[in-house]
Design a protein that fits this description.
Elements (H helix, E strand, L loop, with lengths): L13 H14 L4 H4 L5 H16 L6 H14 L3 H11 L6 H10 L7 H15 L6 H9 L4 H24 L17
Length: about 190
């Protein structure tokens, strides 16, 4: 639920119902962050297309790295909805609960590889100090094995989560424990 009207599946027109049905088929349910788009099905569809491309499309970034970016950006934005959703996804790749909690709270205190730390550091800086980015930030990433395409993918993920965090925070998208349950396994 959110602070604005949302259209329930039983009240959805054909276009929205098709999107809802596809979500239920592929993910098992409709998350609150997607349902908040129900007044604008075209935006919902575009949102989903972008999300699937940057989070599951072909990339030199692993799923673990992408989910770490999501958690770090969302923590910097104080978006509990996205922190918790993506920490849940990250738990598929990080089985150490203490390490996962450190990443959720403050990645700088987590024992990460130098590559993953550099990725998280870039994501955090681009979120909190975007005007201070420089070419040196990219040189550092390249020294940790990231290609230009990887850096583009990272930047798109950082930008996406800043975007979606503002949707969640700006529209009061609710987070609760039920929101994290009953999802089908994500694509590999």
């Amino acid at each position: 639920m959110s602070w604005i009207k949302e259209i329930d599946i039983k009240d959805a027109d054909e276009k929205l119902k098709t999107i809802y049905d596809d979500l239920i088929k592929s993910r098992g349910k409709i998350s609150n962050i997607l349902k908040v788009h129900s007044l604008n099905p075209e935006a919902l569809k575009s949102h989903l297309d972008l999300y699937m491309t940057i989070m599951f499309g072909k990339s030199g970034l692993s799923r673990k790295e992408r989910e770490c970016i999501a958690v770090v950006v969302s923590r910097a934005d104080n978006c509990e909805y996205c922190v918790n959703h993506h920490a849940k996804s990250l738990s598929r790749y990080i089985k150490d609960k203490d390490l996962l909690e450190q990443i959720k709270q403050d990645f700088t205190h987590a024992s990460l590889t130098t590559r993953l730390y550099s990725i998280c550091e870039y994501a955090h800086k681009l979120t909190t100090k975007p005007g201070q980015q420089s070419e040196d930030d990219l040189i550092n990433l390249k020294q940790h094995g990231l290609s230009d395409k990887d850096i583009l993918d990272m930047t798109l993920i950082v930008a996406y989560f800043n975007f979606v965090n503002r949707i969640a925070l700006g529209l009061g998208v609710a987070f609760n424990a039920q929101e994290l349950t009953s999802y089908k396994d994500e694509p590999s």
